[in-house]
Amino acid sequence: MEMKLFNQKAMSMSEIGPQMERLYSSSFSSYMTQPGDKFSQRFCSCRGISPKGSYSSLSNNGYQSKQANGSIRRDKLAAETYLSRINGTNGAIPNMHSREMRVLDAIDDQYGGVVVDHENLPSNPNAFAYILRFSLSHWTMKGKKGVWLKLPVERSELVPIAVKEGFEYHHAERGYVMLTYWIPEGPSMLPSNASHQVGVGGFVINDKNEVLVVQEKHCDPAFIDLWKIPTGFILESEEIFTGAVREVKEETGIDTEFIEVIAFRHVHNVAFEKSDLFFICMLRPLSTQIIVDDLEIQEAKWMPLVEFVEQPLIKEDCMFKKVIDICMARLGKRYCGLSSHQLVSKFDGKPSTLYYNVMETHNSYCIGD
């Protein structure tokens, strides 16, 4: 049983809500808007789930602060008394930290907000509605900022309840929806959802000057006869170069080794108003036998480079043609791409991949050769 408050003999939410709101609103208004209080906010863009910030209250004198704290205690006692009455506890005041009055389990993030524990949510939607409202009040008094609420797909009935309390959609995946709530006055400083999707293409050429090409099963009819390099999207927590190697392996069965990022394209409003980054990677083949992925690929083969570049769709499209020109220049050692280098930054202490160009001055050869 989540809460005694919501048994059949308890008062309805429509009766409870307005009275509780009056109790809470008087408490928070006395705490947050005492005459003469001044509030300052400082924010900076930082890595993480929400921006780092500070929020301070400067009172003209200590008396107002004590007066506000006294008001909170009085309203808290009134709320406890009211709840004990509707719970039928015969005057016994329940502990504000008991199961009936608990705040949602959450952890503090490093930027002044909280992340709700989605694995320990109340099973009863009515209980969730009340506890969520009480939790928001609690976090407001504590000076918290952003609230992150992850609701698994099996708890989707809680989404409209959270939205009614003022939560907004942030992003969704197959198994959950993430909602956010910004407590302080003014616009939300929480970071937006991811703005880009990231794709990769593998330019694989063997020692016979043949390019590994594919024809896709599902494509625009205008490109049905086009032989193209293997492409795809990188996965979460996947490097650009490992994504390119994986996509080539999945589509053609060919094992490869990453050499360099030759170039990348940036385009906007591609899918659901998101932007797209597409990295063309030069790869060295480590095997020769092609095994086609029947789900995505119609056919794959090794095509002579001269035949590949003479395709009408390649010759007529400025983007395709430029990419091929760059790859040809790289093969002729007239161009250097970006090789990958593993580094650890003190900003986050995590290993990162930095892509940059290194050329030996005495022979003008790329380090990747």
Report low-confidence residues grouped into runs of 5 or more.
1-99
Helix share bin? 25-40%
Give the CATH superfamily of the domain at 196-356.
Answer: Nucleoside Triphosphate Pyrophosphohydrolase
For this structure, what is the CATH class of the domain at 196-356?
A: Alpha Beta
Distance, first to last CA = 68 Å
Major beta sheet summary: 5 strands, mixed
SSE string: HEEHEEHEHEEEEEHEEEHHHEEEE
Query: How many helical stretches?
Result: 8
- The second-level CATH architecture of the domain at 196-356 is Alpha-Beta Complex
Which structural class is indicated by helix and strand composition?
Answer: alpha+beta
**Widest beta sheet: strand line-up:** 3-4-5-7-6
What does this structure look like?
Residues 195-325 form the Nudix hydrolase domain. It comes from Parasponia andersonii (Sponia andersonii). Belongs to the Nudix hydrolase family. This is Nudix hydrolase 6-like. Pfam families: NUDIX, Nudix_hydro. The chain is of the alpha+beta class and 369 residues long. Among the domains are: 106-182, Aminopeptidase (3-Layer(aba) Sandwich); 196-356, Nucleoside Triphosphate Pyrophosphohydrolase (Alpha-Beta Complex), CATH 3.90.79.10. The chain contains 8 helices and 17 strands. The strands form 6 sheets. Strands 3-4-5-7-6 form a 5-stranded mixed sheet. Strand 1 (38-44) and strand 2 (52-58) form a beta hairpin. The radius of gyration is 30 Å and the shape is elongated. 24% of the residues are buried. The model is unreliable at 1-99 (pLDDT under 50).
